[in-house]
Design brief:
The structure holds two protein chains of two kinds. Chain A is α/β, with parallel strands linked by helices. Chain A has two domains: about 70 residues, Methyltransferase, Methionine Synthase (B12-binding Domains), Chain A, domain 1; about 120 residues, 3-Layer(aba) Sandwich (Rossmann fold), CATH 3.40.50.280. A five-stranded parallel β-sheet of chain A has the order 2-1-3-4-5, with helices on both faces. In chain A, helix 3 packs antiparallel against helix 4, helix 5 packs across helix 9 and helix 6 packs across helix 7. The two termini of chain A are about 30 Å apart. Chain B is of the alpha/beta class. Chain B has 18 helices and nine strands. The two termini of chain B are about 40 Å apart.
Chain lengths: ~210, ~450
């Protein structure tokens, strides 16, 4: 049996992946099917990351390969993508107010996405109100707060209080993470859990939402 | 006859640096006067304590205690980071207030906030700072981007200074756009044609850039003068600084400053050979950066903040191939030059400790953030002095008793036979003064070696 797109992408073979997709399109293979296969490949990348086989550079590189695949398929796919795939649940993610660091947050967003969650990434330096509004609007069941600096301890606490103030606190689970975050900060902020690495966010979300 | 500097061994050079610190001289070469005999004795005891801890030849009188803060001293003194950056006198007076309250055995000076107006003059893009992208009460924060493009390795490899001047600097500093128009100086060779090289200096954008540079230079001098006077004043009161400057791991030069996290990680796959060459190219540059800082300041401690080699960022194989070899060479080169490299293991480095333990003995100081400190002691700590591991959350959110308990545990477990300086593990802005006071008072008393 010949090698599949799923294998090529999950083994991070950039050139071969591109050639495969180009060849398949020429042969008239349904681009939507190719996109599904590529996503399956990304899913395997996520699994390999969680099992410790892959590291952050592998994740980032897989994202680059996926971007290339998406660029090839984009013009052929008339239908809006993503409508068919069923999502596990909604997660709102933000780096809290005052902090503009995004590397850790972006990794969490990436991993939640490849693991099938519907992720609303609000970016960095996000005010409490913006987070609260988004949770209300989307009915998300998990909120992830990121922060690299010590100022984030207080900002996380205020965000949790903001959720409390409009009666949403017991409808969502709050997870926090970032440079100096530990159990003490979790208690201080009133979060439900904290994670020391990006995979922890996926484990927590799965535990809370299921999937 | 006295041996020439270059003929000295690394140990002899380090000893010379410490002796200079122990008997400090002013710029005219006269011995520095202390405020009184007590201050002089305190100064000497502080330097000796740090020296003994770092060299690991004899146990100090007690565990040295210090703090490595970002904006904490200014918050403590009621000064916003914004004001500390723009009012140099206020910055210094706040720092002195902090010093007199906590009395660390060594300090890192009031240079942390940096000169706000200087950054503004040059339209610095790499950071957002208080009042300029972040709130006045917060510290400055790094804005990572691909300041070097993926197809520019050949340019960097050919002539790094030219690359920095003509490509990197105009992207990182809005006011240095004119640099992009300058020719390489290496083309200035013969009478014929030599004037062509200087034509760009007549162009308005280049002249505009130089005007800004003169202004920025004057501002930097003003700031440095205030900072230097602060160090001298604190020294006269008995408080030494031995921090002489900083250097970086070549991987972090490429990964933090030039290519960014995404860029360097993709380069590891798409153009590993070029990346490796660029990393090697940085080795002598980073060594001479540290050594010349030491020569300028007279202080041997060279800070090396370590970022992208932390657990999880790379696989062990990638770490061994891309991160550690050139960092090791930088550390060894700095030691050979008489410096004391001071790498900071930011975040967690548990999986790297065994790889990194092959280092010169008694010549380095390692700041430990959240790595397993006992494991660090068994590896790197066998040959090097350790500092840190008191966490930001402990200093900000715990009770003084919890802080004392943790310091006791640290001293009991890894501070028993020297080679340890008690301090926080990561630079921080917010902290409880009561907790920090508890850290100092308890450790200075409990840490006395019997």
């Amino acid at each position: 049996m010949s090698v599949t797109l799923v294998q090529l992408l999950s083994d991070l073979k950039e050139d071969e992946t591109k050639k495969y997709v180009e060849g398949a399109l020429e042969k008239g293979v349904d681009p939507a099917r190719l996109l599904d296969e590529a996503k399956e490949g990304m899913n395997i990348v996520g699994q390999r990351f969680s099992s410790g086989e892959y590291f952050i550079p592998d994740l980032i590189y897989s994202g680059e390969i996926m971007k290339g695949v998406a660029a090839l398929l984009e013009s052929k796919l008339k239908e809006v993508r993503d409508t068919k795939s069923k999502k596990l649940g909604k997660v709102v993610i933000a780096t809290v107010e005052g902090d503009i660091h995004d590397i850790g947050k972006d990794l969490v967003v990436f991993l939640l996405d490849v693991n099938g969650f519907d992720v609303y990434d609000l970016g960095v330096d996000v005010p409490v109100q913006t987070i609260v509004d988004k949770v209300k609007e989307t009915n998300a069941s998990v909120v992830g707060l990121s922060g690299f600096l010590t100022l984030s301890f207080e900002a996380m606490k205020k965000t949790v209080e903001g959720l409390e103030a409009i009666g949403l606190r017991n409808k969502v689970k709050v997870m926090i993470g970032g440079g100096q975050i530990d159990g003490r900060v979790k208690d201080f902020a009133g979060a439900d859990a904290y994670g020391l690495d990006a995979m922890e966010a996926v484990k927590l979300a799965k535990q809370w939402i299921g999937g | 006859m006295e041996k020439k500097w270059e003929d000295l061994t690394a140990s002899e050079k380090q000893e010379v640096q410490f002796q200079k610190l122990l008997v400090p001289k002013d710029p005219e070469g006269n011995e520095v006067k202390f405020q009184n005999a007590e201050a002089g004795a305190k100064y000497k005891a502080n330097v000796t304590r740090i020296k003994d801890a770092i060299q690991m030849k004899k146990t100090p009188d007690r565990v040295p205690v210090t703090l490595f803060p970002s904006m904490f001293p200014y918050h403590f003194a009621g000064v916003t980071p914004r004001d500390a950056m723009y009012d140099y006198d206020l910055c210094v007076s706040a720092f002195k207030k902090y010093m007199l309250e906590f009395e660390p055995d060594m300090h890192i000076g009031a240079t942390g906030p940096g000169p706000g107006r200087f950054y503004e003059l040059l339209d610095y893009k790499l950071y957002a700072w208080p009042g300029h992208g972040v709130a006045p009460e917060h510290g400055y924060q790094y804005i990572e981007k691909e300041y070097m493009k993926e197809d520019e390795y050949d340019l960097l490899l050919m002539d790094p200074s030219f690359y920095f001047r003509n490509f990197y600097l105009p992207r990182a500093y809005g006011s240095l756009q004119g640099f992009a128009m300058l020719p390489p100086f290496t083309g200035i060779l013969e009478m014929y044609g030599v004037a062509f090289n200087f034509i760009p200096f007549g162009l308005p954008p280049v002249q505009e850039t130089y005007k800004k540079l003169f202004e920025a230079g004057a501002e930097a001098m003003k700031w440095a003068g205030t900072m230097g006077a602060c160090d001298a004043e604190l020294r006269a009161l008995g408080y030494p600084t031995i921090l002489g400057g900083y250097s970086k791991a070549p991987f972090d030069v490429l990964g933090d400053t030039l290519r960014g996290t995404r860029g360097i990680m993709v380069d590891m796959y798409r153009q590993p050979e070029k990346l490796l060459k660029a990393l090697e190219q940085q080795v002598p540059i980073m060594i001479s950066m540290g050594i010349s800082s030491m020569q300028q300041t007279g202080n041997p401690l060279i800070f090396i903040p370590l970022h992208k080699g932390a657990d999880g960022f790379l696989s062990d194989e990638q770490f061994k191939k891309f991160y550690w070899p050139t960092l090791k060479q930088v550390i060894e080169g700095l030691v050979e030059g008489g410096c004391i490299p001071f790498p900071a293991l930011e975040g967690f480095w548990n999986s790297r400790l065994e790889i990194m333990q092959d280092i010169p003995e008694g010549k380095t100081l390692w700041m430990v953030d959240q790595s397993d400190i006992a494991k660090v002691k068994e590896t790197i700590g066998k040959k090097a002095c350790l500092t840190g591991n008191v966490s930001s959350s402990l200093l900000q959110l715990a009770t003084p008793d919890e802080v004392r308990d943790y310091c006791k545990k640290l001293i009991d477990t890894i501070g028993q036979d020297g080679g340890f300086i008690l301090s926080n593990g990561a630079f921080f802005d917010e902290g409880s003064a009561e907790n920090i006071k508890a850290m100092f008072d308890f450790s200075k008393e409990y840490g006395v070696y019997k």
